Protein backbone atom coordinates (compact mmCIF):
# COMPACT_ATOMS: atom_id res chain seq x y z
CA UNK A 1 0.00 0.00 0.00
CA UNK A 2 1.32 3.46 -0.76
CA UNK A 3 2.30 5.84 1.99
CA UNK A 4 -0.75 7.91 2.75
CA UNK A 5 0.93 10.64 4.72
CA UNK A 6 2.05 13.05 2.00
CA UNK A 7 -1.55 13.72 1.04
CA UNK A 8 -2.72 14.41 4.53
CA UNK A 9 -2.79 17.95 5.86
CA UNK A 10 -2.84 16.89 9.47
CA UNK A 11 -0.72 17.45 12.51
CA UNK A 12 1.58 19.59 10.44
CA UNK A 13 2.77 23.11 10.71
CA UNK A 14 4.82 25.35 8.51
CA UNK A 15 7.96 25.02 10.60
CA UNK A 16 8.05 21.26 10.69
CA UNK A 17 7.98 19.15 7.56
CA UNK A 18 5.63 16.22 7.76
CA UNK A 19 7.54 12.95 7.96
CA UNK A 20 6.09 9.61 6.97
CA UNK A 21 3.15 8.64 9.12
CA UNK A 22 3.39 5.68 11.45
CA UNK A 23 -0.35 5.16 11.30
CA UNK A 24 -2.68 6.82 8.83
CA UNK A 25 -6.32 6.66 7.84
CA UNK A 26 -7.59 8.27 4.68
CA UNK A 27 -11.21 9.06 3.91
CA UNK A 28 -12.54 6.37 6.20
CA UNK A 29 -16.28 6.12 6.72
CA UNK A 30 -18.24 3.79 8.94
CA UNK A 31 -22.01 3.38 9.06
CA UNK A 32 -23.70 1.24 11.68
CA UNK A 33 -27.48 0.74 11.90
CA UNK A 34 -28.05 3.40 9.27
CA UNK A 35 -26.04 6.10 11.03
CA UNK A 36 -22.76 7.41 9.64
CA UNK A 37 -20.49 7.38 12.67
CA UNK A 38 -17.15 8.09 10.99
CA UNK A 39 -17.40 10.38 8.00
CA UNK A 40 -14.60 10.60 5.38
CA UNK A 41 -12.09 11.02 8.15
CA UNK A 42 -8.37 11.39 7.43
CA UNK A 43 -5.57 11.45 9.92
CA UNK A 44 -1.81 10.89 9.97
CA UNK A 45 -0.15 9.99 13.24
CA UNK A 46 3.55 10.70 13.40
CA UNK A 47 5.96 8.24 15.03
CA UNK A 48 7.43 9.11 18.39
CA UNK A 49 4.67 11.55 19.29
CA UNK A 50 1.97 11.67 21.91
CA UNK A 51 -1.28 12.27 20.07
CA UNK A 52 -4.37 13.06 22.14
CA UNK A 53 -7.85 12.57 20.68
CA UNK A 54 -10.51 14.88 22.10
CA UNK A 55 -14.21 15.39 21.38
CA UNK A 56 -17.64 15.32 22.96
CA UNK A 57 -19.42 12.14 24.01
CA UNK A 58 -20.44 10.23 20.91
CA UNK A 59 -18.01 12.05 18.60
CA UNK A 60 -16.52 8.74 17.46
CA UNK A 61 -13.30 8.66 19.50
CA UNK A 62 -13.60 5.06 20.65
CA UNK A 63 -14.67 3.89 17.21
CA UNK A 64 -11.68 5.63 15.65
CA UNK A 65 -9.34 4.01 18.17
CA UNK A 66 -10.81 0.61 17.28
CA UNK A 67 -10.22 1.30 13.61
CA UNK A 68 -6.64 2.38 14.34
CA UNK A 69 -6.06 -0.89 16.19
CA UNK A 70 -7.65 -2.98 13.45
CA UNK A 71 -10.60 -4.12 15.57
CA UNK A 72 -13.10 -2.55 13.16
CA UNK A 73 -12.71 -2.30 9.40
CA UNK A 74 -14.26 0.87 7.96
CA UNK A 75 -16.79 0.57 5.13
CA UNK A 76 -14.56 2.66 2.88
CA UNK A 77 -11.21 4.39 2.97
CA UNK A 78 -7.74 3.14 3.76
CA UNK A 79 -5.81 2.40 6.94
CA UNK A 80 -2.04 2.06 6.77
CA UNK A 81 0.75 1.25 9.20
CA UNK A 82 4.22 2.48 8.26
CA UNK A 83 3.17 2.66 4.64
CA UNK A 84 1.83 -0.90 4.52
CA UNK A 85 -1.42 -2.58 5.48
CA UNK A 86 -2.64 -2.81 9.06
CA UNK A 87 -2.18 -6.58 9.09
CA UNK A 88 -1.58 -9.01 11.94
CA UNK A 89 2.10 -8.10 12.17
CA UNK A 90 1.24 -4.41 12.34
CA UNK A 91 -1.40 -5.05 15.00
CA UNK A 92 1.13 -6.99 17.06
CA UNK A 93 3.28 -3.86 17.08
CA UNK A 94 0.45 -2.00 18.81
CA UNK A 95 -1.10 -2.44 22.25
CA UNK A 96 -4.44 -1.05 23.34
CA UNK A 97 -5.83 -0.24 26.79
CA UNK A 98 -9.56 0.19 27.18
CA UNK A 99 -11.40 2.48 29.56
CA UNK A 100 -12.54 -0.52 31.58
CA UNK A 101 -9.56 -2.84 31.59
CA UNK A 102 -10.26 -6.39 30.49
CA UNK A 103 -8.46 -8.51 33.07
CA UNK A 104 -8.51 -12.29 33.17
CA UNK A 105 -9.72 -14.30 36.15
CA UNK A 106 -6.15 -14.91 37.17
CA UNK A 107 -3.62 -13.35 39.46
CA UNK A 108 -1.86 -10.12 38.58
CA UNK A 109 1.17 -12.19 37.56
CA UNK A 110 -1.07 -14.62 35.67
CA UNK A 111 -2.43 -11.76 33.57
CA UNK A 112 1.07 -10.70 32.61
CA UNK A 113 2.17 -14.28 31.97
CA UNK A 114 -0.77 -14.95 29.67
CA UNK A 115 -0.22 -11.81 27.61
CA UNK A 116 3.45 -12.70 27.13
CA UNK A 117 2.81 -16.39 26.46
CA UNK A 118 0.39 -15.73 23.62
CA UNK A 119 3.12 -13.63 22.01
CA UNK A 120 5.59 -16.46 22.31
CA UNK A 121 7.70 -14.94 25.12
CA UNK A 122 8.92 -17.82 27.29
CA UNK A 123 11.47 -18.86 29.87
CA UNK A 124 13.84 -16.39 31.44
CA UNK A 125 12.84 -13.62 29.07
CA UNK A 126 9.25 -13.90 30.22
CA UNK A 127 10.16 -13.96 33.90
CA UNK A 128 12.27 -10.84 33.41
CA UNK A 129 9.51 -9.00 31.58
CA UNK A 130 6.96 -10.00 34.22
CA UNK A 131 9.16 -8.61 36.99
CA UNK A 132 9.79 -5.45 35.04
CA UNK A 133 6.05 -4.92 34.45
CA UNK A 134 5.20 -5.55 38.10
CA UNK A 135 7.84 -3.07 39.24
CA UNK A 136 6.80 -0.50 36.66
CA UNK A 137 3.18 -0.71 37.80
CA UNK A 138 4.10 -0.70 41.49
CA UNK A 139 2.35 -4.07 41.83
CA UNK A 140 5.23 -6.34 42.85
CA UNK A 141 3.68 -6.90 46.29
CA UNK A 142 0.33 -7.77 44.73
CA UNK A 143 1.64 -10.22 42.12
CA UNK A 144 -0.38 -13.16 43.48
CA UNK A 145 -3.60 -11.29 44.17
CA UNK A 146 -6.54 -12.01 41.86
CA UNK A 147 -6.51 -9.22 39.30
CA UNK A 148 -10.23 -8.66 39.60
CA UNK A 149 -10.08 -7.65 43.28
CA UNK A 150 -7.59 -4.85 42.60
CA UNK A 151 -8.76 -1.27 42.97
CA UNK A 152 -9.69 0.64 39.83
CA UNK A 153 -6.35 2.43 39.79
CA UNK A 154 -4.39 -0.77 40.36
CA UNK A 155 -6.32 -2.53 37.60
CA UNK A 156 -5.61 0.25 35.18
CA UNK A 157 -1.92 0.24 36.12
CA UNK A 158 -1.85 -3.49 35.48
CA UNK A 159 -3.59 -3.03 32.13
CA UNK A 160 -1.05 -0.41 31.03
CA UNK A 161 1.93 -2.41 32.34
CA UNK A 162 0.59 -5.54 30.65
CA UNK A 163 0.23 -3.65 27.37
CA UNK A 164 3.77 -2.29 27.66
CA UNK A 165 5.20 -5.71 28.58
CA UNK A 166 4.51 -6.78 24.99
CA UNK A 167 6.98 -4.07 23.89
CA UNK A 168 4.66 -2.32 21.43
CA UNK A 169 5.84 0.45 19.14
CA UNK A 170 2.52 2.24 19.65
CA UNK A 171 0.28 2.36 22.71
CA UNK A 172 -3.41 3.23 22.21
CA UNK A 173 -5.40 4.21 25.30
CA UNK A 174 -9.13 4.94 25.55
CA UNK A 175 -9.80 7.20 28.53
CA UNK A 176 -7.47 5.22 30.79
CA UNK A 177 -7.95 7.53 33.75
CA UNK A 178 -11.66 8.35 33.40
CA UNK A 179 -12.68 6.94 36.77
CA UNK A 180 -9.43 7.46 38.68
CA UNK A 181 -8.53 9.94 41.38
CA UNK A 182 -5.76 12.50 40.80
CA UNK A 183 -2.97 10.39 42.32
CA UNK A 184 -3.94 7.29 40.34
CA UNK A 185 -4.27 9.46 37.24
CA UNK A 186 -0.75 10.80 37.70
CA UNK A 187 0.58 7.28 38.12
CA UNK A 188 -0.92 6.24 34.76
CA UNK A 189 0.37 9.43 33.15
CA UNK A 190 3.86 8.62 34.44
CA UNK A 191 3.68 5.11 32.96
CA UNK A 192 2.62 6.58 29.63
CA UNK A 193 5.29 9.29 29.69
CA UNK A 194 8.05 6.83 30.56
CA UNK A 195 6.95 4.52 27.75
CA UNK A 196 7.02 7.45 25.38
CA UNK A 197 10.54 8.37 26.48
CA UNK A 198 11.54 4.78 25.74
CA UNK A 199 10.34 5.23 22.16
CA UNK A 200 6.69 4.17 22.20
CA UNK A 201 4.28 6.34 20.19
CA UNK A 202 1.17 7.18 22.20
CA UNK A 203 -2.40 7.73 21.00
CA UNK A 204 -4.75 8.56 23.85
CA UNK A 205 -8.41 9.49 24.09
CA UNK A 206 -9.33 11.72 27.00
CA UNK A 207 -11.99 14.18 28.12
CA UNK A 208 -9.59 15.79 30.53
CA UNK A 209 -8.30 19.12 29.27
CA UNK A 210 -5.56 19.24 31.91
CA UNK A 211 -4.40 15.81 30.88
CA UNK A 212 -4.32 16.85 27.24
CA UNK A 213 -2.23 19.86 28.20
CA UNK A 214 0.14 17.73 30.26
CA UNK A 215 0.62 14.95 27.73
CA UNK A 216 -0.19 15.95 24.18
CA UNK A 217 2.31 16.83 21.51
CA UNK A 218 -0.44 16.75 18.89
CA UNK A 219 -4.21 17.03 19.31
CA UNK A 220 -6.97 15.62 17.12
CA UNK A 221 -10.42 17.01 17.85
CA UNK A 222 -13.33 14.92 16.60
CA UNK A 223 -16.83 16.22 16.04
CA UNK A 224 -19.60 14.00 14.73
CA UNK A 225 -17.27 11.48 13.18
CA UNK A 226 -15.07 14.06 11.48
CA UNK A 227 -11.83 15.79 12.35
CA UNK A 228 -12.85 19.32 13.33
CA UNK A 229 -9.28 20.41 14.01
CA UNK A 230 -5.83 18.96 14.44
CA UNK A 231 -2.39 20.33 15.08
CA UNK A 232 0.22 20.96 17.72
CA UNK A 233 -1.30 20.83 21.19
CA UNK A 234 -0.25 24.37 22.08
CA UNK A 235 -2.01 25.74 19.03
CA UNK A 236 -5.22 23.71 19.24
CA UNK A 237 -5.65 24.12 23.00
CA UNK A 238 -4.68 27.80 23.22
CA UNK A 239 -5.51 29.29 19.84
CA UNK A 240 -8.17 27.04 18.30
CA UNK A 241 -9.13 27.75 14.73
CA UNK A 242 -12.40 25.79 14.74
CA UNK A 243 -15.67 26.76 16.43
CA UNK A 244 -15.93 23.18 17.73
CA UNK A 245 -12.71 23.35 19.76
CA UNK A 246 -13.42 26.90 20.91
CA UNK A 247 -16.83 25.76 22.19
CA UNK A 248 -15.37 22.68 23.88
CA UNK A 249 -12.72 24.77 25.66
CA UNK A 250 -15.50 27.11 26.87
CA UNK A 251 -17.62 24.19 28.04
CA UNK A 252 -20.33 24.96 25.49
CA UNK A 253 -22.24 22.39 23.48
CA UNK A 254 -22.20 22.79 19.74
CA UNK A 255 -24.35 21.11 17.10
N1 LIG B 1 -21.90 -0.97 17.54
C1 LIG B 1 -22.52 0.18 17.37
N2 LIG B 1 -23.72 0.25 16.74
C2 LIG B 1 -24.34 1.42 16.54
N3 LIG B 1 -23.87 2.60 16.98
C3 LIG B 1 -22.70 2.61 17.62
C4 LIG B 1 -21.96 1.40 17.85
N4 LIG B 1 -20.82 1.72 18.51
C5 LIG B 1 -20.87 3.06 18.68
N5 LIG B 1 -21.99 3.58 18.15
C6 LIG B 1 -22.37 5.01 18.13
O1 LIG B 1 -21.32 5.71 17.51
C7 LIG B 1 -21.16 7.01 18.08
C8 LIG B 1 -19.72 7.20 18.45
O2 LIG B 1 -19.41 6.25 19.48
P1 LIG B 1 -18.02 6.28 20.24
O3 LIG B 1 -18.09 5.21 21.26
O4 LIG B 1 -16.91 6.22 19.27
O5 LIG B 1 -18.06 7.72 20.92
P2 LIG B 1 -16.97 8.42 21.83
O6 LIG B 1 -16.51 9.65 21.13
O7 LIG B 1 -15.95 7.42 22.23
O8 LIG B 1 -17.87 8.88 23.07
P3 LIG B 1 -17.58 8.85 24.66
O9 LIG B 1 -16.83 10.12 24.93
O10 LIG B 1 -18.94 8.89 25.26
O11 LIG B 1 -16.80 7.61 24.98
C9 LIG B 1 -22.12 7.07 19.25
O12 LIG B 1 -23.26 7.79 18.86
C10 LIG B 1 -22.47 5.60 19.51
O13 LIG B 1 -23.77 5.48 20.00
MG1 LIG C 1 -15.51 6.48 24.01
Protein model, in words:
Helices cover 35% and strands 24% of the residues. The strands form two sheets. It has a six-stranded mixed sheet, sandwiched between helices. Strands 2-1-4-5 form a four-stranded antiparallel sheet, with helices on one face. The chain is an alpha/beta fold and 255 residues long. The chain has a single domain (5-102, 170-250), classed as P-loop containing nucleotide triphosphate hydrolases (Rossmann fold), CATH 3.40.50.300. Residues 32-33, 37, 55, 57-63 line the site of adenosine-5'-triphosphate.
In short:
The protein is α/β, with parallel strands linked by helices and 255 residues long. It has helices at 61-68, 88-92, 108-117, 123-137, 152-165, 182-197, 209-215, 233-238, 243-250, and strands spanning 23-32, 35-45, 50-55, 76-81, 84-85, 94-97, 170-174, 201-205, 218-223, 226-232.
Amino acid sequence: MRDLSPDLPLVADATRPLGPAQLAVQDISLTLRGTRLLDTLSLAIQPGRKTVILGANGAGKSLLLRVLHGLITPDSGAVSWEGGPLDATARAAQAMVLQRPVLLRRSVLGNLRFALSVRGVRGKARVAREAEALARAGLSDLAHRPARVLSGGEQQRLAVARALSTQPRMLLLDEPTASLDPAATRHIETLVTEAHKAGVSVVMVTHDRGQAQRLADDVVFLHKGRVAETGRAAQVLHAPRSPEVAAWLDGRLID
